[in-house]
Here is the input.
Amino acid sequence: MTLETIKFLSVIGSFSLLYLSEQLFPYFVSRKHHLRHSLRNVALGLFNVTISLMIVLTLIKGAEHWADIRQFGLLHQLELSTSAGIIIALIIIDLWQYLWHRMNHRIPALWRFHRVHHCDTEMDTSSAVRFHTGEILISGLTRAPLILVFGLSIEHLIIYEIVALPVILFHHSNLRIPTSLDRVLRYIIMTPHMHRLHHSDQQQETDSNYSSLFSIWDRLFYSFQSQPLREDFKLGLGSAYSDSDCNSLGGLLALPFSEKDRTRH
Ligand SMILES: [Zn+2]
Here is the structure.
């Protein structure tokens, strides 16, 4: 079985399992337009996968080939065993994901795209694939220099995705898990409770809990937050964003070019 097949099975398997589980044990109950919400997010996600395969993958393969024939980059120089190389690659990629996510909140031009992900007011497993195509392209392009500098391979990226994507689907899900279990899991990975705070309509909470896979980065860089600031916790970006901005495909694709929310950053 190829790594691509394992990645495909891991994403489809974890998505299906989480999507079914969150119907049976939901954290937020009595949600409206549940199916329409999921279909819209998945449609955007599938479109982004197509664009990534066409543009980003070509660039990344070019960067990998360039670094490989010149033995350029940290991992080529260290001459590690395969398993040690994979572990270091996972740490490097996950740290980059943390820093890149934080930049998406700090740099206004990036936030314009990233707010498409954050204006979702009904988070569930499908929210994990709800990103503006512009963000996917820019984020994909930043991986080329990462591959060059650290001598990473396509296989390293795929292995990272096999491990990280189920966790990312999990922490976006609307699955109600015991608080005690969440408290234990958050020592290692980003959990639903931690990531829900990152999707709060309060900026102080949104500017916390940026990790994708390993939660250690938020603890190391002082961005960890464990409890909501208010009792009436809400998801989304507040009243400045209308239903048509955040709950239609056209509105989502146009959102980066709107002047809303400029006071937020
Ligand atoms: Zn974010």
